[in-house]
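Why N-(5'-phosphoribosyl)anthranilate isomerase? Reviewers of the renewal asked for a concrete example.
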Amino acid sequence: MSVRVKVCGITRCEDAAAAIRAGVDAIGFVFWPQSARYIEPDIARIMTANVPPFICNVGVYVDPDVAWVEKTARVAQLNLLQFHGDEPPEFCNQFSQPYIKAIRVKPDTDLLQYAERYRTAKGLLLDTYVADMPGGTGHAFEWDLIPKRLSLPLILSGGLNPANVSGAIQQTQPWAVDVSSGVETSKGIKDEKKIFAFMRGVKQL
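Here is what the prediction returned.
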């Protein structure tokens, strides 16, 4: 089965276009204002208006207000919401768009319990725990911490790059992989060659 790919933290039209040319399945926009990869919803709309069919537009949030999610989802024409904070399932469930829940993994994280708690999510995105950094850390976590069987589709994130993505997929067998800093020259600035190299690493399996 093909592994899906999302390139997250898109801030420029040329980077969105490069990701689409490379064959990604989703592009992600960070709507958390404290992030170096934050994008205004009006700018994201310029990009999503040109996204071809069957590519998903994902909005990324960290403990947002309801009104902010609704506004950004409408303006940026989002297909999927990604929550990276402490949002409870009741919060995540109230929007028109489906959602995935990001979990920052530590040795004592009970991922089976999270999968049950967020059973209405379309998937669990597993990322690296770094204090005060909800995502985009550039660091991988111990993939051995992932249970062999999760009740939700696994989206692997955290420290992935063109050099390690093939091995990560072989070890964890995810439904999808999510990359941001691993295909950047600086925060929010993607590198087209790295995106294509990342896709080759995914597809060679």
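The mean pLDDT is 93. This is the kind of structural detail the renewal will allow us to pursue systematically.
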